[in-house]
Amino acid sequence: MVRRRPTARGWALAALGVVALQTGIGLGSLDLVRIGFLLVALPVAAFVAAVVLDAVRGRRGLEVHRDVRPDPVHAGQEAEVRVDIRATDRAGRARLAGLRFSEQAAVELSGGRALRARVTRRADHATVRYPVRATQRGRWPLGPLVVTRTDTFGVVRSRTTLGPESQVAVWPTVVALPAPSDVLVGEPDRVALGARTPSTDDANLRDYREGDDLRRVHWRSSARRGAMLVRSDERAGMRPVSVLLDLPVRPSATEWTISLAASMALAMLDSGHPVRLAGPGLAPGRDGTAHGPSPYVHGRQGPESRAALLDLTLDLQPARTPAEAEAALLDTTRVLDTSRAAGQIVLAVVGPLSAAGCVTLAHLGDVAQGWAFVRADGRHAGDLRDTHHTATVLRRSGWRVAQVTTGEDLVDCWLRLLGSAR
Asked: What keywords are annotated for this sequence in UniProt (predicted)?
């Protein structure tokens, strides 16, 4: 859509022309009337010319390409945006010479401030560069490019958009957590899971367990036996990890929870564990609602594995009420409990739970090795009491538990969990 309006000069000329016309008519001065007519006609003619030119040229002759680096970007970090505008014909080069550029961006990228760009021009090419600072996790729009053109006399300004809108993905803030493999996976666990000591013989086979890398499946033996078998070596002893998220109502608590969960997931992935996230909005459960676990991500998939985990967090949304948040958590926990969770590690970030919530989560700890952060959300005066009660129930059920408060340093929380006693 093209917007046209007179400039300050155009309004001034039109106003001066009207005054000259009225004065000329009142004084009976033909020359003054002619001058007034010309002053009024100039902005009107320029406006009509702008309409005709835009109708004839349209947006042809110019191509726009936008590049954001890095993309995705973590919340709290800056990204550099580069917009290239190229003229594809002679008419495009003529239009490009008289254009001024500005860019539109979501508040989550601009911080509510005007974007300050650097523009470089050539005969057939213009480049607009500017930084954006991501302030919140999610997917946020960028663009389209806004171009402004003023006529030769400077009395009419036309403004329109050019090129498509882009989206910038913003991952949650994450921190590097100490590798926990020596704490979470001890030698007894490895023996129980059928792991072998390192050897040159990689042909030892065992039954497939959920979370195993499909590239380790021995297809010939699986076909002969009629059941999936995988090669068992040292790395096969790394237990699968499910990171369970309870998304609270307050947005700040939600972002802190997601940052902690994502940091833990990356730490476990870097330690060699297959990892998945479990929480509302990640994967459909049995009833069709999105409360199930995501597929496992394996570190052997390369650098893309970290991106795949972080991409899962982009569209997570907080619950509307505390009751809805706990219902989503219980649905997710039940799906985990029925998805061959035996032997896996469950890392949970939860708020204060009701009696039903404590029972459901405690039952999951009967079949999996459970580690939990119990978060004080500050919802009411009894929040700390309810947090302590939830932590006590889980601890008595065999979970390793650390009580935390929303906004705490993530590394301190993680070290407190690793150092806590059952």
From this structure: Membrane, Transmembrane, Transmembrane helix
Top-tier CATH class for 181-193+239-418:
alpha beta
| 204 Cβ neighbours under 8 A, 6+ residues apart | 196, 231, 232, 233
Q: Which residues contact 26 (CB under 8 A, 6 or more apart)?
A: none
β-bridge pairing 62-69 and 156-162: unpaired
**What does pLDDT average to over the chain?**
81
- Give the percent of the chain with pLDDT over 90: 34
SS (H, E, C) 319-336: CCCHHHHHHHHHHHHHHH
What CA–CA distance (Å, rounded) separates 56 from 335?
60
The pLDDT-based confidence of 132 (bands split at 50, 70, 90) is very high
62-171 falls under which CATH superfamily?
Immunoglobulins (2.60.40.10)
Continuous H helices in 28-117: 30-57, 90-97, 107-110
Residue holding tokens 């961006």? 105
Tally the C-alpha atoms within 13 A of residue 25's C-alpha that lie toward its C-beta. 7
Report how far residue 95's alpha carbon sits from residue 61's, in angstroms, rounded to the nearest whole number. 8
**Which helix H or strand E contains 74, and what residues bound it?**
strand 73-74
Instruction: Name the residue ranges covered by the structural domains of the chain.
Output: 3-57, 62-171, 181-193+239-418, 200-237
Helix (H, G, I), strand (E, B) or coil at 59: coil
Give the rounded percent of residues in the chain with a pLDDT score beyond 70.
82
- Both tokens of 259, joined, read 């940052």
Residue for token pair 């302590």: 388
Q: Is 257 exposed, middle or buried (0-12, 13-18, 19+ CB in 10 A)?
A: buried
At 288 the pLDDT is: 44
**pTM value?**
0.77
Interval 37-43 mean pLDDT: 89
CA distance 226 to 228: 7
More confidently predicted of 122 and 82? 82
What is the rounded CA–CA span in Å between residue 223 and residue 238? Answer: 25
